[in-house]
Design goal:
The protein contains 6 helices and no strands. By secondary structure, the chain is an all-alpha fold.
Length: 146
Amino acid sequence: MKMFIHTLQTWLVAHFFHPVIFIIYFLLQNDKEGDNWGFAFFFIAIFSFFASIPSLFVAWLLQYVITNSNLSSVEKFIAWIISVVVAIFLNFAGLELMFGDFMGEKIDEIMAPPVIAAILSVLIRYKQFFAFQLSYRSFKNENNVA
């Protein structure tokens, strides 16, 4: 359960940054349609929260695989960054399969902000990642000894 809590907290930190990064991303692209940023911020925050729930579970599964691998802690951290990005890509692929007609052709444009937010959240929580890896390893060793 501790692994899910770690994944959930990282996911929540990403959602803290995601709407802000999304709006900054579109402001940098000089998007002229964005007159009502308050509504856009609210919509992006709510929609992305629910639309990314599959990413949470994919990342949790990938973290389980990474944590139980025989990699060093640094290699696990790099794999965790890569797996978070993979989870987002898989989520977008699933959304495109389900709602491809409604999402339009601009799905590639909206992919960068969640990836940036996810990588930022993993980098911010790097200390918690290493602490989790140490506690998980010691817990696993205690269970194997008994």
